[in-house]
Write a structure and sequence with these properties.
There is one protein chain. The protein has 14 helices and 20 strands. An eight-stranded mixed sheet has the order 10-9-11-12-16-13-14-15. Helix 5 packs antiparallel against helix 6 and helix 6 packs parallel to helix 8. The two termini are about 15 Å apart. The protein has two domains: about 270 residues, Alkaline Phosphatase, subunit A (3-Layer(aba) Sandwich), CATH 3.40.720.10; about 160 residues, no CATH class.
Amino acid sequence: MARKLVIMHIDGLGADSLEDALKTGLLPSLQGLMEAEGYEIHRYRCGVPSTTPFAQAGILYGDNTDIPSFRWWDRERGVMVQFGAGSTFKKVADKYFAGCEPLTRDGACIAACYPGGAADNFGIAYEDRTYGTSDRSRSAWSVLLPYIANPAHVGDWAWQTAAVLGRTAKDVVRSRKAGGHPARSYVLMDVVEEIFVHHLTRYAVQKAMREGYSPIYAGFYAFDETGHAFGPDDEASLRVLRQVDRSIARIAAARDGRYELVVLSDHGQIDTVPFARSDGRSFGAVLAEACPGYHVQEMKGKAFGPKPEDARGVINVTFSGGLAHIYFADSGRRLELHEVESRRAGLATDISRLGDVALVMAREAGGEVFFRGGAKMPGEAVKPVLGAYDDESILYAQLSRLNGFRTAGDLVVIGEFHDGKQVNFEDQAGGHGAIGGEQLHPFVLAKKEWGLDTSKVNGAHELHPILCDLRDRLAGKVT
């Protein structure tokens, strides 16, 4: 009998953290799926950058080329591309996904970065909603009004608001007393996610299931947001993970013999230490000192140096956790290393000498060049260094692919990985985006009988055909 498919995306939960949570009894619903229905954990590698827009594009479309981080500078159109609140991806979206087969074509894509070819894309997809392009496209109000009209939901909101605000205030105090550095902006986002977005997303999934959409893909971000705010192993994050498990239980219970369920993550998350911890200066301030006369703009951050009109040039810097992209704004294309050197001799070398920097990448004559500790390492010469972070050959291929993106910075800077913690360029207690530790190792939880093999998946885009094949087999389209 044909089956429909619902895919739950738990943002930021690494495979190791999943196994730890299962062992401690934190995830009884997932444990129940494993024991009663034969679910098993399939590890895979998401690739670099270990960010949601990159991984989710790979999962939904099978192509995440030229998505170099959570935010980047589009030289051709002069726009800072970002996701989340105030997403600007729609300004460059026409450059992406041409000819791709979306995972959720004719289905529902809920609270995702991209519409995924879905008939219905309720949530945070970047595109302006144009209801009526599909007979099955719902307005936001068709989801919101029934939810709000239910007194039980309103009561739950009121209770949740009071409880979450109280718990969060206690978590901030507790974290500070323990020497932590809770990230203020992410604390606020965590509150919004817990009170509103998570519950509404769950309701939208259940409603889409009642209406027969398939496949359904839905992103649940509360764990990742809380991890950014307090750290992935903090008790606040683990409490939210338990909440995600309860949502899985509700969705699993709503399958009613029609749906099969897959649970996956896009990347992991690790504890961080801020780049600015030593002398209080951010990376932008350090870069401005290294490039006298330049106006240095941290996109979504502070500016340093002379005003743009008085400067010899403008440098834009974008941050995604432990990853930073440096763009010389006077160029409409990516600069090669010798062109960077003509603007500021020895810049890559000097940045690589910073104690909180693991690597600096650049392009030279169409090939890779890396810098570490002031030493220049062309191509595969960097592999022995990479072995300290992951499998050196796999990681080299992942970094080489990122370094080949035309949207990557003229220099790409990767934060160091110290004692299991990532050096982060953003204000986050937990982070991802770079290399080292669990951030590169997410999972797929699926039934053993389906025979999924993710052992050779070294990038999220390689997961796409596996999920498309499962979708089609369940629907009876593959014999």
